[in-house]
């Protein structure tokens, strides 16, 4: 929605009276818009502080038990959810330099035998809604590279469980995943996710949510709706 008339309050902030003000959106939806994909079965996973997925579906899906919700996208639906797992866990355990260095020693074609549920603290919301779920980050192997491999693979399994749940609830099955957020830069993680998800996984051409927010503002300004 857009409003073409600025109030006195905002005009005093330095904006002109004819400035067009458009409503915003959430970070994960902006990241989806930045990827510029609208076909059913296409999805965007945002790998930022949390792990959020958005899937274009012909069918609306809502289920508060699992934190699943839908937003209207023209004549289709944007279905998704957000896990508490994600980059914030990695930042608790590794520095940026360590993530780069250790990732070089990971073979993404080889499944990790480690089974974790990486959370920054107690509580999960999607694909399992359990406020009492405890993080599972042990046992920790001697090799930091093996440990990182296990964490990345465990996050990939959470992502796969999310898309599996959306399908079980009636959403269009995922066929292809684009990646946004800081995690999109890690090619080894992308390869792990592609193996675990069983569908093509790509780095989105535009990985920053700000780009999607700008596209939304442009559409609002040009349509004047």
CATH class of the largest domain: Alpha Beta
- Assembly type of the shown chains? single chain
**Unreliable residue stretches:** none
Overall geometry: globular
Into how many domains do the coordinates divide? Answer: 2
Give the helix tally: 7
Major beta sheet, strand line-up = 5-6-4-3-7-8
Give the full name of the CATH homologous superfamily of the largest domain. Answer: ATPase, nucleotide binding domain
- Helix fraction, binned, reads 25-40%
DSSP, total strands: 8
Q: Mean pLDDT, as a whole number?
A: 88
Topology as H/E string?
EHEHEEEEHHHEHEH
What distance lies between the first and last C-alpha atoms, to the nearest angstrom? Answer: 5 Å
- Predict the CATH topology of the largest domain: Nucleotidyltransferase, domain 5
Descriptive report:
- Belongs to the FGGY kinase family.
- This protein has 225 residues and is an alpha/beta fold.
- It has 2 domains: 1-26 and 209-225, no CATH class; 37-204, Nucleotidyltransferase, domain 5 (2-Layer Sandwich), CATH 3.30.420.40.
- Helix content is 35%, strand content 17%.
- The protein is built from 7 helices and 8 strands, in the order E-H-E-H-E-E-E-E-H-H-H-E-H-E-H.
- It has helices at residues 8-11, 27-35, 87-93, 96-103, 144-168, 187-197, 209-223, and strands spanning 2-3, 21-22, 42-47, 51-57, 69-73, 76-83, 176-180, 201-203.
- It has a 6-stranded mixed sheet with strand order 5-6-4-3-7-8, sandwiched between helices. It has a two-stranded antiparallel ribbon with strand order 1-2.
- Helix 2 (27-35) crosses helix 7 (209-223) and helix 5 crosses helix 6 (187-197).
- It is globular and about 60 Å long.
- The termini are close together.
- The model has no long low-confidence stretch (mean pLDDT 88).
């Amino acid at each position: 929605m857009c409003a073409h008339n600025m109030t006195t309050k905002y005009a005093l902030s330095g904006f002109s009276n004819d400035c067009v003000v458009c409503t915003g959106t959430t970070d994960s939806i902006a990241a989806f818009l930045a990827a510029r994909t609208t076909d059913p079965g296409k999805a965007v996973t945002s790998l930022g502080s949390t792990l959020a997925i958005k899937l274009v579906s012909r069918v609306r899906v809502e289920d508060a038990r699992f934190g699943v919700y839908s937003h209207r996208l023209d004549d289709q639906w944007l279905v998704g959810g957000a896990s508490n797992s994600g980059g914030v866990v990695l930042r608790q355990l590794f520095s940026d330099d360590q993530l780069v260095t250790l990732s070089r020693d990971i073979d993404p074609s080889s499944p990790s035998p480690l089974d974790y549920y990486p959370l920054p603290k107690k509580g999960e919301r999607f694909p399992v809604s359990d406020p009492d779920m405890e993080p599972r980050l042990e046992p920790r192997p001697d090799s930091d590279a093996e440990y990182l491999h296990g964490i990345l693979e465990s996050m990939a399994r959470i992502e796969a469980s999310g898309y599996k749940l959306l399908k079980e609830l009636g959403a269009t099955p995922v066929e292809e995943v684009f990646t946004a957020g800081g995690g999109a830069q890690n090619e080894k993680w992308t390869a792990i996710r592609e193996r675990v998800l069983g569908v093509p996984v790509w780095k989105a051409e535009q990985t920053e949510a700000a780009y999607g927010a700008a596209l939304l503002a442009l559409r609002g300004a040009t349509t004047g709706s």
